[in-house]
C-alpha cells in the first residue's frame, strides 16, 4: 500500500512546505557554528516555522563554533550500539561523517521533494546525508574603478597579476580559506577531473608530485604580489587591503565580501566575480538522524527550508548563496548573485590540505610552516 503522507509530500512539496504533522511533536535539532548561525535559527527561521507549524516544537541545541560536534556524533554512535534512540532528530554540521558511520538517514526527492531544486553535485558532496540550505565560495574581488575587464579564467588571472605587479595578494593557505582556495586552484590546474576528485576525497602522498608545476607557478608569482611578495594575514586582511585601495584584486569569501559591502566596510567600487574553473566553496548541510522517531516532521522541516521565502531570508541574513539553484529564487536574488553563485569547486581532503600548506611554505615562501 502506498504511503498517503509520501504522496502528499510529492504533490505539494514542489510549491510549498507540507503540513506533515498533526499531532504535537518535538524535534531535537543539534546545530553549531558562529553567533550569526545561532541568530539565524533563533531569531528568524525557527519562529517562521513555528507560525505555520504550531504542532511542531523545535528544540535547538547549539554548539558555539561546532565545538561539540564530535560529542554529538559520539552520543549518536553510543545510542546505536546500545540499540536505543539517541534523542537527536536533526543535525547541522558533519552529516557526511555521521552518515558514513551509519548514523544519518539517506535523503532523496521522495522524502524531501524540493531537493530536486538543488544541484546534484552539492547533494552528492555529502553523499545525500544532508540538505544544503546555504552556501558560499571564494570569489575574486576587484576594484571596478581601476579594473574594467576582470579576468574570467585562471590563465587570465595569472596573466593579469604578472602585468600588474603589486596589485594582487592572498593570505597564506593555513590562515584562511580564501588564500587556501587560490593555492588549491593553481595546484589543480594540472590535474585531470578524476585526479582532482581523488585529491578532494582520498589521500596518497605519492600523488603530490603532480603539484610541482603549480608550486613553481606560485613561487614565480610571489615577487609580483603586494609590496614585492607580501601576503595578507588572513581572510579579513585581503578585504582590508582592498578597502583602502592598497591592491586592486584578491580572493575573498563571497559571504564576507557581500557582508562588508552591505556594512559599508568596502567601497561600492569593489565588485565580486567568479573565474573558470571556479574557486572552492562549500555548503552548510542539515540532515535527519537515522534513529529519529519523528522523520515525517523532520522531512517536512527540510522541505520547508528550501522554499523561496525561507531561502530569501537565509540569503539576506547570512549574505550567502541560496541552497537551491539560482533559477528558483526571486529576481532580486538572481540579480544579486548572478555573477558569482553559478558553481564552485571543492578543496583538497584534510591530509592533502595539510601537506599542501607545508609544501607551500617550503617551496613557495621558502620558510618552515609556522606553528599555530
Report on the architecture of this protein.
The protein is α+β, with helices and mostly antiparallel strands and 372 residues long. The protein has two domains: 4-135 and 282-337, Periplasmic binding protein-like II (D-Maltodextrin-Binding Protein, domain 2, 3-Layer(aba) Sandwich); 137-280 and 344-365, Periplasmic binding protein-like II (D-Maltodextrin-Binding Protein, domain 2). Helices cover 42% and strands 14% of the residues. It contains 15 helices and eight strands. Strands 1, 2, 3, 4, 5, 6, 7 and 8 form an eight-stranded mixed β-sheet that branches. α2 (35-52) links the parallel β1 and β2. The protein starts with a helix and ends in a 7-residue tail after the last helix. This is ABC transporter substrate-binding protein. InterPro entries: SBP. Keywords: Signal.
Q: Low-confidence runs (pLDDT<50, min 5 residues)?
A: 1-20
The overall pLDDT, averaged over residues, is 91
CATH superfamily of the largest domain: Periplasmic binding protein-like II
Please state the second-level CATH architecture of the largest domain. Answer: 3-Layer(aba) Sandwich
Strand and helix order: HEHEHEHHEHHHHHEHEEHHEHH
Summed up, the helix count is 15
Keywords, separated by commas or semicolons:
SBP, ABC transporter substrate-binding protein, D-Maltodextrin-Binding Protein, domain 2, eight-stranded mixed β-sheet, single chain, 14% strand, 372 residues, alpha+beta, 2 domains, disordered N terminus, globular, signal
Amino acid at each position: 500500500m502506498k504511503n498517503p503522507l509520501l504522496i502528499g509530500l510529492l504533490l505539494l512539496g514542489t510549491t510549498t512546505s507540507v503540513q506533515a504533522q498533526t499531532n504535537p511533536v518535538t524535534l531535537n535539532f543539534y546545530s553549531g557554528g558562529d553567533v550569526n548561525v545561532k541568530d539565524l535559527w533563533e531569531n528568524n527561521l525557527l519562529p517562521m516555522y513555528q507560525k505555520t507549524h504550531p504542532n511542531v516544537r523545535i528544540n535547538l541545541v547549539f554548539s558555539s563554533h561546532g565545538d561539540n560536534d564530535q560529542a554529538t556524533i559520539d552520543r549518536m554512535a553510543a545510542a546505536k550500539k546500545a540499540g536505543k534512540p539517541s534523542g537527536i532528530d536533526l543535525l547541522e554540521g558533519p552529516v557526511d561523517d555521521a552518515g558514513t558511520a551509519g548514523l544519518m538517514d539517506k535523503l532523496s526527492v521522495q522524502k524531501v521533494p524540493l531537493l530536486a531544486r538543488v544541484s546534484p553535485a552539492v547533494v552528492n558532496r555529502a553523499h545525500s546525508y544532508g540538505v544544503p540550505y546555504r552556501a558560499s565560495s571564494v570569489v575574486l574581488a576587484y576594484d571596478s574603478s581601476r579594473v574594467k575587464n576582470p579576468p574570467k579564467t585562471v590563465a587570465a588571472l595569472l596573466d593579469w597579476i604578472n602585468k600588474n605587479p603589486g596589485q594582487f595578494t592572498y593570505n597564506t593557505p593555513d590562515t584562511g580559506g580564501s588564500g587556501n582556495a587560490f593555492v588549491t586552484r593553481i595546484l589543480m590546474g594540472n590535474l585531470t577531473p578524476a585526479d582532482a576528485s581523488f585529491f578532494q576525497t582520498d589521500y596518497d602522498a605519492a600523488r603530490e608530485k603532480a603539484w610541482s608545476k603549480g608550486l613553481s607557478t606560485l613561487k614565480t608569482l610571489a615577487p609580483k604580489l603586494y609590496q614585492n611578495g607580501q601576503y595578507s594575514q588572513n581572510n579579513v586582511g585581503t578585504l582590508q587591503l582592498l578597502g583602502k585601495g592598497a591592491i586592486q584584486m584578491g580572493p575573498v569569501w563571497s559571504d564576507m565580501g557581500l557582508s562588508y559591502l552591505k556594512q559599508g566596510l568596502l567601497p561600492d567600487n569593489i565588485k565580486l566575480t567568479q573565474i573558470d574553473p571556479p574557486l572552492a566553496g562549500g555548503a552548510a548541510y542539515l540532515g535527519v538522524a537515522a534513529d529519529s522517531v519523528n522523520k515525517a516532521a523532520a522531512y517536512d522541516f527540510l522541505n520547508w527550508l528550501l522554499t523561496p521565502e525561507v531561502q530569501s531570508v537565509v540569503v539576506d541574513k547570512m549574505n550567502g548563496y541560496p541552497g537551491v539553484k539560482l533559477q528558483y529564487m526571486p529576481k532580486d536574488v538572481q540579480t544579486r548573485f548572478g555573477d558569482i553563485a553559478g558553481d564552485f569547486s571543492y578543496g583538497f581532503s584534510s591530509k592533502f590540505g595539510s601537506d599542501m600548506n607545508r609544501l607551500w611554505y617550503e617551496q613557495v615562501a621558502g620558510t618552515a610552516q609556522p606553528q599555530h
